[in-house]
What does this fold into?
Amino acid sequence: MSQHPSDPFLAPPAAPAALSLPRRGMRDTAHGPLIPPTTTAVTGPQTQQTPELAQRYELLARLGVPTATSEDFDELARTMATQAGFLYGFVNLFLEKQTFVGLHQPPADSGYVIVGRTMSRDHGWCPEVMARRKALPLHDVHASPRFSGNQVVDAVGIRSYFGAPLIHDSGTVLGTVCVIDPEKRPLSEARRLRDIVIDAGVQVMDHIARAPVR
It folds into this structure.
């Protein structure tokens, strides 16, 4: 995949070299650039907001939900990914960027792509989950032309995705939970995997509901 200054996953000069993703039936080759990790906390609106984004920030503040990395959300992402048998799991708040307040991924020395804590709002499949307000099961992203062309497919080498929305009782969609993996899954597994991420979304919203209301 060619890179130029506008590439969404172009690593800064100081970032480590790209890690390779093992590909079935092939010798390991560089499959995409490293997504540079970041620990910068998103603490509030930094740009001009849409009404939807302003409502999301207002609700998160009222609920007392931090928009920075959370060990509790990391644990929920790990449990979800482990139950599904996926390499990556995310608890994702849609702020100025997709912000992974919960993240599970392979160890840094595993040979798999290491992702950061944020991503552009229009990358990946979570924007589709936000728009449709229901779960999106993709047992093989290449099985659907609509979903096969995606920056994440190229950069991380993803073949399967299962995501569900985080919807507050007020109707506001706060973000998503999702799992991704470089291996496709049998269609027969789609319902079980969809139910895992839906259940994880319920757990995240239960956790949010227990946060101290301001």
Summary: Residues 1-47 have pLDDT under 50 and may be disordered.
